[in-house]
Amino acid sequence: MRIPFLSSLRREYALQPLSPEESGAAAALHREGFSRPWTDEEFISLLGQDTVFGFAARAVGRGRGNPVGFVLARLAAGEAEILTIVVARAHRRYGLGWQLMDAVLRELHARRAEALFLEVDETNPAAVGLYRRLGFVEVGKRPNYYQTPGQAPTSALVMRRDLRR
Predict the structure, then answer these.
(1) Core-most of 65, 73, 148, 153, by most CB within 10 Å?
(2) Is the pLDDT of residue 38 over 70?
(3) Given its phi and psi angles, is residue 112 left (phi above 0), alpha (psi -120 to 50 degrees) or beta?
């Protein structure tokens, strides 16, 4: 049985840099959010690059357990891109995606980046809405980019946010 008033309680999260040691947990969480999830080895490889950084989120009061969300980004030559972002199903709709994106934006501001790009499935209205609220605008579209077995292909919206105004 679900108690309605308990689901509206505010949840708090602690964000910390995502480390290569968390690659297994990141891969497990990525499997929950994507039909073509990345492997532990792919996360290890990405997190070993100087241009890649990310943040992991844990529910406050839950100890040093596995992350319940994370974001991974890359910065090169003043332009950045979100490589991936995922929030565990049980922690969606609590503002965690916003907090993760805010952490990336703050880091990019500190590093004096000029723009941030991302790609998002056009059929994901929650993510598209979040990015628009964060100031991203659509600058392109990749037709039939996402291929999910048993489903029709969907397009990726390419979005950009200028960081220097």
Answers:
(1) 73
(2) yes
(3) left
Encoded tokens for 127: 């993510």
Q: How far apart are CA 12 and CA 105, in angstroms?
A: 19
Q: Cα dist. 66→18, 22, 48, 111 in Å?
A: 11, 8, 20, 28
Nearest of 16, 24, 18, 22 to residue 40 by alpha carbon: 24
SS3 category, 82:
strand
DSSP string, 3-17: -HHHHTS---EEEEE
Q: Model confidence at 62, in pLDDT bands (50, 70, 90)?
A: low
* pLDDT, tens digit (0-9, with 9 covering 90-100), for 102-141: 999 999 999 999 999 999 999 999 999 999 999 999 999 9
- The structure tokens 């392109």 sit at 140
